[in-house]
Design goal:
alpha/beta; TIM Barrel; Rossmann fold; five-stranded parallel beta sheet; 23% strand
């Protein structure tokens, strides 16, 4: 969350900024302005959708836990492009019903509530069905009757606290066998609600507790079928990656569409240099904030671009005033905007909009409940539009020929009225990049990857800053394995704010940032480096895809609908190995995981022993 106390303009800095920018321009050999023109795909560019049959049945129960995990499981299956039906167990299940599906997911804890139908369910598994639990089972009579069928030899009396995960056999991108991913800070309560179990030798543990003693996700073959058991209750968004993992372990091979992209954003850049606590900048470097930005901060950002292939999307702020009523004065000190913006553009990056100022687009009298901190609400939609039009004029004058089609809401706050005003004032905006994780207190705009009915593409940012804490990294891990995507944003004035690590100093902060960038690069070198608009195109292509998977004697045959000439997938091969392909390319990532890319509507992955 941004703090307005760091948003006042330092007046006497422009000459210093200009000098620093000219040094960088000379260093990086930049002589002209790059024009960025994204290519959007029209509805006519996509093939007809394929009618997908429901292959999964989600069994639910009328209680709060089941409602939460039905929604979470549905989000994961939608993302994997698996069509499903939901059914309350009060309606009953039969063998005839189960035979119409390939997989079943349980979203409730008390298996005994199935009564005699629990026997029917496990007979179906024995004959080749695939069963998954989305939430840790509770110990009751029904569970006790079938627990050996899911690999459990003994169950303890307690529910141990879980602090983190060990991820085994390289089953997830970004995880090594000796690494522990913490769930919550140590000083807080653990997750708990996991059964204390001992498994038989035929069970395969994929995820265990931080000390390795408690299985949290395992698979066990039963007859001709298979069961995947999640033994923890987690409602955080990062659990999606583990649900995706569990589902992908059920069959011999699992393939699902992904976004395949990594995007890095620089909020509030280029912009006036904000006022803030430059104590630590002067302590460590003996310079003022303006000199630090141009001579130390920006060179590091450009070095990261060069070293890791990053293409930054920089978001323009024209002023840091709190004015919310038209007319809006022009910023006449524009030299540093032009020079810094061209550095980003000529390195393959992109410029987008953050706002005329840093006031979130929320209306008085309509969005009063969304007011946060010292931010002001706008008197009318006409005032919002006027501010956006001034920002557009300012940006086009400095960067002629560029398309500014990416918008990032200040502090990730924007209302429905604000989005409508944005659409009307700047119809060229096709991408809104807010935040993946909601902050209820700060009124942030939580997004999912996908398209709105009005054509706006949502590309939420997953992580931020230089301090990538355990929770952020776990969420990034989840999205690497679910959507095969990474999105991160940074602010230049992080180094001025103690809450964001300023006291540690830029050297330590930048080392933390590079450690995260290196982890992404090393974990998924196949991941495409994209600008914000390119990320929008990738999400657009992913969102429209429909898929039919057919297991044949030769391998896996895939047919696509909603296809526009390019598609990416993750594929997990649980049995056998990949021996070749037709109509696509593939590359090993980690463990049994592969990336697959195609430019054809139909392709085949050949599998052998």
């Amino acid at each position: 969350m941004r703090n307005r106390k760091n948003r006042k303009l330092l007046i006497p800095v422009f000459a210093l900024l200009l000098c620093g920018a000219m040094v960088l321009l000379e260093r990086y050999g930049i002589t002209g302005q790059n024009v960025n023109e994204p290519v959007w795909q029209a509805a006519a560019d996509f093939s007809e959708d394929i009618e997908m049959e429901s292959t999964c049945l989600i069994l639910t129960k009328e209680n709060e836990i089941s409602t939460v995990f039905e929604k979470m499981t549905g989000a994961v299956l939608d993302g994997m492009k698996v069509r499903y039906d939901s059914r309350d167990i009060a309606e009953g299940i039969s063998r005839e019903l189960l035979d119409g599906y390939e997989t079943v997911v349980l979203t409730f804890q008390q298996w005994g509530d199935l009564g005699d139908e629990l026997v029917v369910l496990f007979q179906w598994v024995r004959d080749g069905g695939k069963l998954m639990t989305a939430v840790a089972p509770g110990y009751d009579g029904g569970f006790g009757a079938v627990m050996k069928k899911v690999g459990i030899e003994n169950v303890g009396d307690d529910y141990p606290e879980i602090w983190g995960f060990q991820i085994r056999d390289h089953c997830m991108i970004g995880a090594t066998d000796d690494e522990v991913f913490e769930c919550v800070p140590r000083e807080e309560e653990g997750l708990g609600t996991s059964l204390q179990v001992q498994l038989d030798p035929e069970s395969h543990v994929w995820v265990a507790s931080e000390d390795g003693t408690l299985p949290l996700l395992w698979t066990r073959d039963y007859g001709k079928g298979r069961v995947a058991v999640i033994n923890v209750v987690i409602t955080d968004k990062y659990q999606r990656g583990f649900l995706c993992l569990a589902y992908s372990l059920l069959d011999e091979v699992c393939i699902y569409p992904v976004i395949d992209g990594s995007a890095f954003y620089l909020d509030d850049f280029p912009s006036p240099v904000p006022e803030g606590d430059g104590t630590y900048v002067r302590r460590d470097y003996g310079v003022d904030t303006a000199t630090f930005y141009s001579s130390i901060w920006l060179p590091k950002i450009l070095d990261l671009e060069e070293k890791y292939g990053i293409k930054h999307t920089a978001l323009i702020i024209e002023e840091y005033s709190d004015q919310v009523r038209a007319p809006f004065p022009e910023n006449v000190a524009s030299a540093q905007f032009s020079n810094f913006g061209n550095l980003i553009l000529n390195n393959g990056g992109e410029l987008g909009f953050h706002g005329y100022n840093h006031m979130p687009l929320c209306l008085q009298g309509t969005d009063d409940a969304m007011q946060y901190g010292e931010y002001k609400l706008w008197p009318s939609t006409e005032d919002i539009k006027a501010s956006l039009k001034e920002l557009e004029r300012f940006s086009k004058e400095l960067f002629p020929g560029n398309s500014f089609c990416v918008y990032v809401p200040p502090s990730n706050i924007i209302s429905g009225a604000g989005r409508q005003a944005l659409h009307e004032a700047c119809p060229q905006i096709r991408v809104i990049a807010s935040t993946y994780l909601e902050d209820i207190e700060a009124k942030t705009y939580e997004q999912e990857f996908g398209m709105d009915e009005n054509g706006i593409i949502n590309t939420p940012r997953i992580t931020s800053g230089c301090r990538i804490d355990a929770y952020q990294k776990l969420t990034a891990l989840s999205e690497l394995n679910f959507h095969f995507v990474q999105t991160h944003f940074l602010h230049p004035d992080d180094v001025l704010d103690q809450d964001r690590g300023a006291e540690e100093g830029w050297e330590k902060m930048s080392a933390g940032l590079e450690e995260y960038v290196r982890w992404i690069s090393d974990s998924a070198p196949q991941l495409r480096n994209l600008t914000g608009s390119e990320m929008g195109t990738a999400v657009q292509q992913y969102d429209r895809i429909s898929i039919i998977r057919e297991r044949t004697d030769e391998g896996m045959r895939v047919r696509l609908g909603g296809f526009s000439g390019d598609a990416a997938f993750l594929m997990r091969v649980n049995e056998g190995k990949v021996t070749g392909a037709r109509g696509c390319s593939y590359e090993h990532v980690t463990g049994d995981l592969y990336t697959v890319h195609t430019k054809e509507e139909e392709f085949v992955i050949y599998l052998g022993e």
